[in-house]
Specification:
Layout lengths: L10 H7 L9 E8 L6 E2 L7 E3 L1 H14 L3 E7 L16 H12 L4 E6 L12 E3 L2 E3 H18 L3 E4 L6 H11 L8 E6 L6 H6 L20 H13 L3 E5 L5 H11 L3 E5 L1 H12 L5 H14 L4 E4 L2 H10 L1
Parallel strand pairs: 1-3, 1-4, 1-12, 4-5, 5-8, 9-10, 10-11, 11-12
Antiparallel strand pairs: 2-3, 6-7
Helix pairs in contact: 2-3, 3-4, 4-5, 5-7, 7-8, 9-10
This protein binds ligand PBG.
């Protein structure tokens, strides 16, 4: 008897035996909202993506809701930045106003607020700076304040992305103190110091003035360390955990999923998105197929949810069939 693996690779059967299928239900759309804008502005480094005004953001979320996208994550660009990142925890900050506005016209889409200081600090780092270094412990109360203001504005989930030690514990305590005991935390638990964030830093205008983020984000060389990071965040109260970026770290996604079995997110970051879009624009690859393959690989590695700039396009194509 010869086992002929190709017997199951005919179109109809192939579909039936597929182990992994990405669905719109798995996807979360990242969106940028800029407090200075009246109309949306295209982001050159991320084809198909825009920085939104609060009004255009609300319309975009309505469209995503109609397309069946289950969640969005909001990144804010404040009117002004300062040394201490006030815009992140201002009750009238851009993300807070955006969350409030979205909730006026949509009810199904889950609104996740990215929670970090880097878009709001003049130096662009994710925490307060003391002697040219990020002061972890002095940053924690500010993250707590930011979380409370976001939850109060209507955010359904807060997602700390700054890789401060003990950030989840500080945020959980602050939320609980103010009565937001049911607001879940999606922690960017294993976030690597990655060059794949390049286009995002242009999109969010959050480049840093000096140094880099390798003092608090993870070394790409380490995978076991990611398990520590995730374990600590779970112990501190994270409800969902994230690995970021996604495709260069699929081994980490798999390890994290196997070890903890928690709701696991993976973030297909700006660089991953833009590489595919740029190559597709040049006709070097089939963008839609490459994107489908990338998302399938991320899900196959164990991700329950994928943050991807392709979520809207994917949903549109899924509806078209
Ligand atoms: C920072 C943050 C970053 C991203 C999400 N949150 C950038 C960074 O750490 O430099 C990157 C997302 C992307 O590249 O798509 N709070």
């Amino acid at each position: 008897m010869m086992r002929r693996m190709r017997r199951l690779r005919k179109p109809g059967l192939r579909r039936i035996v597929a182990e992994t299928r990405v669905s719109t239900d798995d996807l979360i759309m990242p969106l940028f909202v800029d407090g200075r804008l009246k109309t949306p502005v295209a982001i050159e480094s991320m084809p198909g993506q825009s920085r939104h005004s609060i009004e255009s953001l609300a319309r975009e979320v309505e469209e995503l809701e109609e397309l069946g996208v289950p969640g969005v994550i909001l990144f804010g660009l404040p009117e002004e930045k300062d040394e201490v990142g006030s815009g992140a925890y201002d009750p009238q900050g851009v993300v807070q106003r955006a969350a409030e506005r979205i909730k006026e016209t949509t009810s199904k889409v889950v609104v996740i607020a990215d929670l970090c200081l880097c878009e709001y600090t003049s130096h662009g780092h994710c925490g307060l700076i003391k002697n040219q270094l990020v002061s972890n412990d002095e940053t924690l109360p500010l993250l707590g304040k930011a979380a409370v203001s976001q939850a109060r504005a209507g955010a359904d989930v807060v997602a700390p992305s700054g890789m401060m030690d003990q950030m989840v514990a500080a945020i959980r305590a602050a939320l609980d103190d103010e009565g937001f005991t049911d607001t879940p935390i999606l922690s960017y638990a294993a976030k690597y110091a990655s060059s794949f964030y390049g286009p995002f830093r242009e999109a969010a205008q959050s480049g840093y003035a000096f140094g880099d983020r390798s003092g608090y984000q993870m070394d790409p060389a380490n995978a076991l360390e990611a398990l520590w990071e995730v374990r600590l965040d779970i112990e501190e109260g994270a409800d969902m955990i994230m690995v970021k970026p996604a495709m260069p770290y699929l081994d980490v996604v798999r390890m994290v999923k196997d070890e903890f079995g928690m709701p696991t997110a993976a973030y297909q970051v700006s660089g991953e998105y833009s590489m595919i879009m740029a190559a597709a624009e040049r006709g070097w690859i089939d963008g839609e197929k490459a994107m489908g393959e990338a998302l399938t690989s991320i899900k196959r590695a164990g991700a329950d949810m994928i943050l991807t700039y392709y979520a809207k396009e994917f949903a549109r194509k899924e509806l078209e069939g």
